[in-house]
């Protein structure tokens, strides 16, 4: 597929203000060109505006809701169910331990970072209060191509080779703006990425065109369950095979934008193995209920109840031996690590000038050794989080076993990320406890890293 045909004329090779006709660029490069065009438009200004104060507060923050899932669109079944889908090849290893982003990856980060700073950050406070990401921000996230980052180029996406690193960099940049909004914006792309990684030809041809078109559906992964000491690799939700396919029963929590989602990827136990299933929101037996949480409130978290949900036999996504499910969990944990790094960087960037300007006893509090050491520790632990996350992403991109690497990254990001949030609040003193400063929100968001399992993928 020629991606240049998907670009405005001004951005095509040889076009005005576009790439030189002799210059070659991979699909991410073309996407970056499109993102640059967006950054130069007035869309950024439009999405940066707050919603009117008189807008009704999201229902779940006051009375809650409990309703059937969104009717959604009708996904027309096409393709061969028994034929493997398109797979993006792994990136070629360089043979060097080099975590430096490529030129195109850095350009992608710069554009997404600008979007996060100018559009996501200003909307974060209100989104936290209403438990809902502004529609304008979500629309802008679709226009910059977030849902198709992990979709193969031949299926309308921009992935020519597997790039978990690009996904990590994007998640980190968005997390620096606001973790809750980042999760809400990345959720549809997580489902699209899952379809690109494990979907059959029929599944990809049935669902992916919606994610690569103009009207991208809300979609969500549903792996987490509200259980004490919950083990994500041993879900209590069950799938029982029958003559018509499978029947699902169970309860899922932490489902992003569940009230709006048109497609779910649900994790359930089938014959003792964790398996992924595609469930359309119009399927009878589904019910969503608002479940606003302590952190990442802008993600509009819900619970999803499945009661005798009948799905067809071809709704299985990936292998039934648990390998696809385990891979999904690892990639989700990697995404959460990236979000933690971005939010931790936001904390560091905020407290550093604060301690230099805030005075006590006639001098900046940064002159106090205890304060200086605390800021330094934030920087040290943050860099360790970043390096572990990047290494795991690099191994995932090249098809190497990264089980150990992502486990180390998650442990570091869950523990030290929460500590960074706590230290940020502590450094601001009384100011850290009030909503006038965003650090208290970042602290609440960072606590989600060790709890949330399947909401976003890279």
Automatic annotation (TrEMBL):
Domain Acyl-CoA dehydrogenase/oxidase C-terminal per the UniProt entry, residue ranges: 328-455
Membrane-crossing residue ranges in chain numbering: none
Stretches for region Disordered: 1-22
Limits of the Acyl-CoA dehydrogenase/oxidase N-terminal domain: 102-212
Pfam families given in the database record: Acyl-CoA_dh_1 (PF00441), Acyl-CoA_dh_M (PF02770), Acyl-CoA_dh_N (PF02771)
Keywords recorded for this protein, A-Z: FAD, Flavoprotein
Residues of the Acyl-CoA oxidase/dehydrogenase middle domain: 220-309
Cofactor requirement: FAD
Keyword ATP-binding: no
Molecular-function annotations in GO: acyl-CoA dehydrogenase activity; flavin adenine dinucleotide binding
Family matches, as PANTHER family: ACYL-COA DEHYDROGENASE (PTHR43884), ISOVALERYL-COA DEHYDROGENASE, MITOCHONDRIAL-RELATED (PTHR43884:SF12)
Family: Belongs to the acyl-CoA dehydrogenase family.
Entry protein name: Unannotated protein
Species classification: unclassified sequences, metagenomes, ecological metagenomes
């Amino acid at each position: 597929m020629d991606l240049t045909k998907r670009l405005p004329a001004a951005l095509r090779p040889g076009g005005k203000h576009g790439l030189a006709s002799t210059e070659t660029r991979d699909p991410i490069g073309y996407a970056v060109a499109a993102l640059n065009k967006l950054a130069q438009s007035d869309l950024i200004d439009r999405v940066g505006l707050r919603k009117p104060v008189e807008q009704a507060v999201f229902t779940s923050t006051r009375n809650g809701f409990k309703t059937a899932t969104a009717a959604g669109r009708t996904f027309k079944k096409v393709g061969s169910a028994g034929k493997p889908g398109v797979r993006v090849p792994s990136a070629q290893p360089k043979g060097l331990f080099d975590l430096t982003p490529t030129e195109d990856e850095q350009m992608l980060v710069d554009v997404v970072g600008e979007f996060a700073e100018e559009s996501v950050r200003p909307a974060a406070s209100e989104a936290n209060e209403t438990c809902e990401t502004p529609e304008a921000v979500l629309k802008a996230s679709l226009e910059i191509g977030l849902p198709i980052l992990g979709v193969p180029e031949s299926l309308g996406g921009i992935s020519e080779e597997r790039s978990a690193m690009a996904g990590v960099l994007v998640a980190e940049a968005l997390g620096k703006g606001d973790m809750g909004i980042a999760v809400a914006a990345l959720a549809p792309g997580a489902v699209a990425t899952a379809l690109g990684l494990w979907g059959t030809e029929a599944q990809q041809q049935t669902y992916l065109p919606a994610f690569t078109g103009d009207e991208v559906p809300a979609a969500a992964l549903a792996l987490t369950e509200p259980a004490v000491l919950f083990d994500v690799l041993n879900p209590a939700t069950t799938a029982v095979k029958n003559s018509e396919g499978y029947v699902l029963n169970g309860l899922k929590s932490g489902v992003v934008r569940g009230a709006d989602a048109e497609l779910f990827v649900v994790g359930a136990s089938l014959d003792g193995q964790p398996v992924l299933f595609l469930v359309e929101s119009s399927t009878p037996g589904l019910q969503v209920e608002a479940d606003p949480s302590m952190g990442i409130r802008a993600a509009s978290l819900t619970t999803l109840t499945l009661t005798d949900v009948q799905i067809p036999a071809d709704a299985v996504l990936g292998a039934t031996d648990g390998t696809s499910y385990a891979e999904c969990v690892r990639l989700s944990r990697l995404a959460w690590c990236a979000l933690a790094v971005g939010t931790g960087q936001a904390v560091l960037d905020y407290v550093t000038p604060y301690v230099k300007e805030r005075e006590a006893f006639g001098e900046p509090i940064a002159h106090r050794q205890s304060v200086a050491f605390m800021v330094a520790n934030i920087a040290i632990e943050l860099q360790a989080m970043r390096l572990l996350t990047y290494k795991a992403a690099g191994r995932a991109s090249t098809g190497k076993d990264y089980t150990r690497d992502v486990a180390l990254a998650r442990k570091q990001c869950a523990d030290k990320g929460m500590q960074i949030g706590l230290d940020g609040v502590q450094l601001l003193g009384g100011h850290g406890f009030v909503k006038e400063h965003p650090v208290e929100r970042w602290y609440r968001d960072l606590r989600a890293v060790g709890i949330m399992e399947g909401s976003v993928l890279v």
